[in-house]
Fold Usg-like family protein.
Amino acid sequence: MTSHAPGPSLHHEPRPDLSETELMLRGYGLTTAEFIYHMPDFTHVLNSFTWQDYDLAPDHPRLFKFIAFWQAEIEGKLAFVRFTHRKMIGPNEWRNVAGEFTVH
């Protein structure tokens, strides 16, 4: 009988000891966001900041946590944020191969 670890909760951060592959197998996908913002001294100039992390769709808790951090701690006022999410692999799309050989 095989036991499976419970999937990630939307309320928990991914553990830092997990590899990217392990995160993807637990349902995380790569989220890329572009933050367009104004600095207080140059309100007529738009600046861009790109952010990437592994996150869970469709709620994107890590992205929204970063947006909340930005609004609380960064002086630049957000004009808008656009993002994309790509789930690379899932548990049923990956199998562990113990060996490999070439046939001529």
Notes: The radius of gyration is 19 Å. The chain has a mean pLDDT of 81. The helical segments are 20-25, 61-73. Residues 61-73 form the longest helix (13 residues).
